[in-house]
Amino acid sequence: MKNYIDKTLKEELEKTFAFQLNQNQYQDIKRLIFEISRRQNISTPKIINYLKTNSKVDRQTGRNKFFALKDCLVKLRFPLTSTYKNIDRKKIFLNKLQAPLKDNWTVKDTFRPTTLFFEKKTKGTYLIDNFQKHFPNLKIKQISSLKDYIKNNKFRLSELKKPFVFIVEENRDFLKPCPCTKGHLGCGYWIFNLGFGCPFDCSYCYLQQYTNSAGIILPANLTDFFRQFDKFRKKIDRPIRIGTGEFCDSLALDHITNYSTELISYFKNKNVLFELKTKSNKIENILTQKPVSNIIISWSLNPEKIIKFEEKGAASLQERLTAAKKIQDIGFKLAFHFDPIIYYKNWEKDYKKLIQLLYAKLKPPFAWISLGTLRSNRQLKPIVEQRFPKSNIFYGELLIGKDKKLRYPEFLRKIIYKKITREIKRFDQKTPIYLCMENKAIWRDLGNFQTTKDIETYLIKNNL
Ligand code: SF4
Questions:
Q1: How far is the CA of 217 from the centre of ligand 1 (A)?
Q2: Spacing, Cα 254 to ligand 1 middle (Å)
Q3: Spatial separation of the C-alpha atoms in residues 27 and 372, rounded to whole Å
Q4: Tell me: the pLDDT tens digits for 273-316?
Q5: Which residues approach ligand 1 with their CB closer than 6 A?
Q6: pTM of whole model > 0.90?
Q7: 382: which residues sit within 8 A by CB, 6+ positions away?
Q8: Where are the domains of the chain?
Q9: Substitution site in 175, 180, 442 for ligand 1 pocket (most atoms within 8 Å of beta carbon)
Q10: Which CATH number is 172-461 given?
């Protein structure tokens, strides 16, 4: 099916419904028709025919005709939410149609960087050697600093996944509390900011929105991170959960960076739970380590269908579970993240199958399981439309939530969480389940959690 809107649409609408659309009105109608045709796989003429037969549209004239048309299209665009409640029109995000990028870089199954840039200060560090050993044809260039490189090299969105690596010296932002989302219940997580960027290319990835340079940024000065952490522990010495997987994948490049070896050796037996979170199967370094009870290796999971279409370059579901099994067999604790959970036709069947596979392969209890439904800042949607023109996930029933992010409406999130937790609990009563970026009302369904402290205690008490 053609996924563009014909240039004659405005004319056709005005002729068919006998009224003039102003630019904004046309913008809204065009966007709604586009999204309906994408999500329902129906053609524009069919949608117009349906509108023609709608008596509510027929009865109106002038400006009211536009409102009747829009109402009708909103019901078609959000069929489930419309049957549940009246949709506040201010919660619908109708952005301008975006043409797909013509020369977009796509990721390959195996990450093969073409150029490594290193900041002058990192000259001679092991990371540069390791990349050179793995990729003998790699071009290596010295830069004064990443900041200067960014200033002098104009970034184009189509270059986001150009296979570049930057070796830098990180001077700030070593550690920070996870910002979570406004007005929602955080879980008290801390981010160990070891790198930015990822060799995979997930359509929903929020990093796309924050990147101002192609490639992956890796710090060479781990000892500074550890020094900073020592200082931080003097101020906050309660147990915390901390991990590296927020702005990068913790293990995707571990066979080159060896970060995990350094991290495990530094964090082992400290009074913190340190998590390495991945969508890869790069576990070679972990397999050489002795298990430590406060180190947790975790995987983000989704049904294979979603992995294939929305998580380009990442390991398949079977590869992730096989890697997790090897890690569990040598005695490390595991955790899993069902995040983002995507609502689509047959979602329930696919997620149930995923949970059954997980428990067929691995032995509970795990350190934790997190659940989070698809959510994003509005600015991400046009980026995804340009970079992933075949992805339909942003044409799901996403509305602007209380935190101004695009999210499924609360009633739907409650249904999703209820069904998934029920399925998990059929196999496993012990693993603590938590919600990522959710509000108090939704948390209430899971138990008596009022504050971040309650959640932190719940997640930490069984693991330390
Ligand atoms: S709930 Fe999710 S987003 Fe919020 S603090 Fe925890 S990990 Fe961060």
A1: 23
A2: 24
A3: 32
A4: 999 999 999 999 999 999 999 999 999 999 999 999 999 999 99
A5: 178, 180, 186-187, 189, 436-437
A6: yes
A7: 95, 96, 98
A8: 9-91, 172-461
A9: 180
A10: 3.80.30.30
